[in-house]
Design goal:
Radius of gyration: 23 Å
Strand order of the largest sheet: 10-11-12-13-22-18-17-16
Structural class: mainly beta
Largest sheet: 8 strands, antiparallel
Strand content: 35-45%
Helix content: 10-25%
CATH architecture of the largest domain: Distorted Sandwich
CATH topology of the largest domain: Beta-galactosidase, Chain A, domain 5
C-alpha cells in the first residue's frame, strides 16, 4: 500500500509539473496587446511592449478616420498620412464618391477639399463633407488579440447623414512584432437610396498609401499572389493578395493586403509611388450602382505586417491560415 501511495504521489507531482510546463510553454513569448484610447485627441493606439503597432486617428479635425502611423516590426513607419501631390491620401483609409437620392454628388475621397482653403492644396477644418466617428461599440484586449467595433457616419453639408458605417477590426500579435489586422467595412443606406459613382481609376476598398521609403519608385517591390511584380503587371489585374516590400538600411520588411474570398474576383489598384488596394467584386467594379435604402455592402481584408520579403515572410501560408479562420 505504501508503494502504491508513493507511486500516486510521484505521479501527481509529475502531472503537476507537466501542467506547469505546458502553461509556461503556451504563455512564454506571447506578446500581449494593449489598447490605449485618448478620446480628447481622437487617437486610439494598439500597443505591444509599450510600443505602438499603429494608431487609429478619429478626431473630427480630420476629413475622415484613418490609420496612421503604422509601424513595421523594426519600427519604421510604413505609411504616409498626407502625401504630395495628393494631400487627400490618408495612409490607410476607406472612402467613395456617391449621390444620396435627391442630393448633389459627394466625393468623400476628396472630402479634404471641402474644408476652408488656406493655401495651395491646403485645407483646414471644418470639412463640409466628412466621415465622422460616432462611438466604439467594443474595445477589448484579449491576450495577443484585440477586438474593436465602431460606428461611423458619412455626412454631407455639415451634418446631413448619407451612409452609416460599421467597422469590425481584429488585431493579432504574431512572432517578432509581426501582426495581422483583420478588418470588415459595412456600409448601410440607412436614410435613402445611395448611388455609387467610383470609377475604374480612383478607388480601392480600402486604400493604403505606403511611405515613400517603401515605394516601388525607391526600390520597393509590388508582388501579387500569382507571382506578378510591379505596377504594370499588377494594376487592374485580379489577385487574392498584393504585397509591398522593400529593404531599408539592410532590413527587409513588407505589408500584404489579403482579399477575403467572397466568391468573386477582385481587381486591384497598384501604383509605383505607393498607393494600392483591392477593388469591389467585378460586377460592381468601376460601374455605377445603387445601394437601395436599408441595404448594406461589405468589404473584408487582412493586413499582414511582416519581416522579410514575400517568400521569407511565408505570405502565402499566412494567407491560407487567414482565410482558414486560424486567427479567430
Amino acid at each position: 500500500m505504501r508503494h502504491i501511495k508513493l507511486f500516486n504521489l510521484i505521479a501527481a507531482a509529475i502531472l503537476c509539473l507537466i501542467s506547469i510546463s505546458v502553461f509556461l510553454y503556451l504563455t512564454t513569448d506571447v506578446t500581449k496587446i494593449e489598447i490605449v484610447n485618448n478620446a480628447a485627441s481622437g487617437k486610439l493606439s494598439i500597443v505591444i511592449d509599450d510600443q505602438p503597432l499603429f494608431v487609429y486617428q478619429y478626431s473630427q479635425n480630420w476629413d475622415l478616420p484613418h490609420f496612421w502611423p503604422l509601424y513595421s516590426p523594426s519600427g519604421n513607419n510604413m505609411l504616409i498620412q498626407k502625401a504630395d501631390p495628393f494631400p487627400h491620401h490618408r495612409s490607410f483609409w476607406f472612402a467613395d464618391t456617391i449621390i444620396l437620392e435627391g442630393e448633389r454628388e459627394v466625393s468623400f475621397y476628396y472630402a479634404y477639399t471641402s474644408g476652408e482653403k488656406v493655401g495651395e492644396n491646403e485645407f483646414v477644418p471644418p470639412f463640409r463633407d466628412h466621415i465622422k466617428h460616432i462611438e466604439f461599440v467594443r474595445s477589448d484586449s484579449l491576450g495577443n488579440k484585440a477586438i474593436i467595433k465602431e460606428k461611423l457616419l458619412w455626412e454631407m453639408d455639415g451634418n446631413k447623414p448619407v451612409l452609416e458605417e460599421y467597422r469590425d477590426v481584429r488585431i493579432y500579435s504574431l512572432k517578432n512584432r509581426e501582426y495581422l489586422i483583420d478588418i470588415t467595412f459595412t456600409l448601410t443606406a440607412a436614410f435613402a437610396d445611395v448611388f455609387f459613382l467610383s470609377d475604374n481609376i480612383h478607388y480601392a476598398w480600402p486604400f493604403l498609401r505606403m511611405h515613400p521609403d517603401f515605394s516601388e519608385i525607391n526600390g520597393g517591390t509590388i508582388t501579387s499572389d500569382n507571382g506578378a511584380t510591379g505596377e504594370e503587371a499588377t494594376n487592374m489585374q485580379i489577385a487574392k493578395w498584393i504585397d509591398y516590400s522593400n529593404t531599408i538600411e539592410d532590413v527587409t520588411e513588407g505589408l500584404t493586403v489579403f482579399q477575403w474570398p467572397d466568391g468573386h474576383d477582385h481587381k486591384w489598384l497598384t501604383r509605383e509611388y505607393g498607393c494600392f488596394g483591392p477593388r469591389r467584386p467585378e460586377n460592381q467594379n468601376g460601374k455605377p450602382f445603387t445601394l437601395y435604402k436599408d441595404d448594406s455592402i461589405s468589404q473584408r481584408v487582412g493586413v499582414y505586417v511582416h519581416r522579410g520579403d514575400v517568400k521569407t515572410a511565408n505570405v502565402e501560408r499566412i494567407y491560407k491560415e487567414y482565410i482558414g479562420n486560424k486567427f479567430h
